[in-house]
Amino acid sequence: NCQLFSALKDPSVVIMSNWLKIRGTLKSWTKLWCILKPGILLIYKTPGSDHWVGTILLNACKLIERPSKKDGFCFKLYHPLDKSIWAMKGPKGESVGSITQPLPSNYLIFRAASESDGRCWMDALELALSCSSLSKMSAKSGRDGDLSGSSESSHILQLLQISLHQHTAERVHIRCNAAGEASQVETVSEENKGLIWTLLKQLRPGMDLSKVVLPTFILEPRSFLDKLSDYYYHADLLSQAVMEESPYSRMKQVLRWYLSGFYKKPKGLKKPYNPILGEMFRCCWLHPQTDSCTFYIAEQVSHHPPVSAFYISNRKDGFCITGSILAKSKFYGNSLSAILDGKARLLFLTRDEEYIITMPYAHCKGILYGTMTLELGGKITIECEKTQCYTEIEYKLKPFLGSSCNVNQISGKIRMGEDVLATVDGHWDSKVHLTEKRTGQQEVLWNPGPDIRRQRLKRQVVQVDQQEAFESERLWQHVTRAISDKDQMRATQEKFVLEEAQRQEARERAERPWNPRLFTFNTDTNEWHYKYTDTKPWDPERCLLQFEKDGVIQTKEKSRRRSFSYSQNWAAQQKVSPTGS
Questions:
Q1: Organism's domain of life (predicted)?
Q2: Spatial distance between the Cα atoms of 256 and 269, rounded to a whole number of angstroms
Q3: Distance (Å, rounded) from C-alpha 26 to C-alpha 24?
Q4: Distance between CA 421 and CA 251 in Å, rounded?
């Protein structure tokens, strides 16, 4: 607990800072720089501290979400008795703020640029408002209006001591709320609490978390390249989609497959390993019904920024997928967002149809105060230009005053041109319904119950001792083993060895660009493409997956007889180990 105190007692601590639009008394909006500290919200004309506009005393305020039809996300701070929410003086003793349009005295309405930013501000303000003794400590400052110098330092320090006391009194829990299953709960040990507080010392609002060294106990013991493969345990849905006759039926089946990638999640809140530059992961899933195989390969093609490229193929069943993900994580005081920036291109080979697919962002709140929860948010699209079939799904974050039934909700539409063919609603981790617009008929589009889970395809991976040095499981095996043994010190040491080797390699490479082995960057489209798609390396009736020394996935001619059992031979010759469901 003294580590938490040490990490947070700095009076200059900033919970969050960013631009916000604020509505004036004349109904017009002004863009101002806002800095949130425990108990106060400082407002400036610019990010510097020379143009102070005003200070909001949060002890007097209530917070509500304010729905808006315009772009962005609105929320309101107000005094429940319509009294002034402003301090009389500024942080440096200023008695007159910089001139802006007139602002209301008893409330302020804010507009953030996006829902993600707005939710982060709501979470951060909830943290700032949560100190139970805030009103007592603010009373003296409110009477004489002096928030400058040592009085502000003392004020913030007392707030942090209260926050520390509340953290000590409570059991710290990490919880993933789920509508379709019991909530996942993990209690953080006293040793690991200290690691959290040490981590906080590295963080500043808006910081890119890819540059932060994370404690190993919050890591899911596998690489991000491995985690991206979770979307293909139900790849047989794509095999079925190719066979559907109508564009609408194919889109429906693609959406069903898309939803199948989200319900598999670790216990508690866990983050996979950040892949090492040049790291690769490969696996496959056997399809018993079609006697085919879906192959997956991914490579970390860039470190700063962190970009993961992937290629998936099942040529016998007629589909392949290519794409890349830029993982961006931002810290916002009491919350953080993880944005998977990029797109996947799903191609139905026999139909020459391409579906362009985007991803939701992850939103984690309660890092410093309250229950830590993980949600998905944002709008995703699945679009086929050839058929003019288009799906838009909104992943909804829990409203500020919402109940548990509002967690993990989604809603959306399937369109053909301008016509709405069906609506979609439900919970992404449980049951999702589809309603036909013309007939009103409703069906269960997706429900990952026990029957569906039993239908998961069996994933196969090459045994660790047969993998190359830079394949994920072999590369991270010592870290993974230490985490499994609950030896956090050894896990941290092993992780440091890998990260230091990567830094040393970067120093030796100096200004020379990194050349990925399996993917190439197309400067015209700004996308990564798998180098060897034209060689058709994964034809299920003719070849085995071979990972040769030059890094090219090549083929080895086998019997062309239809009775040839591809999956059994592949497993036997590659010394494949099943990873189960």
A1: Eukaryota
A2: 25
A3: 5
A4: 11
What are the tokens at 27?
Answer: 């109904």
What pTM does this model have?
Answer: 0.70
Per-position b or e across 498-535, b if 16+ CB within 10 A of its CB: beeebeeeeeeeeeeeeebebbebeeeeebbbbbbeee
Residue 251 · residue 240 · CB < 8 Å: no
CA 104 to each of CA 54, 79, 164: distance values in angstroms, whole numbers, following the listed order? 12, 11, 34
* 148 Cα distance to chain centroid: 39
Chain centroid, CA 411 distance in Å: 19
Instruction: Give dist(CA 425, CA 392) in Å, integer.
Output: 11
Digit-coded pLDDT (tens) for 274-293:
899 999 999 999 999 999 99
248: number of Cβ within 10 Å: 17
Alpha-carbon distance 360 to 375, whole Å?
10
- Omega before 305 cis (within 30°)? yes
CA 220, CA 266: separation in Å to the nearest integer? 7
CA 506 – CA 151 distance, rounded (Å): 47
- Name residue 532's amino acid: Y
SS3 category, 191: helix
Six-digit token string for 411: 């809603």
Are the CB atoms for 176 and 265 separated by under 8 Å?
yes
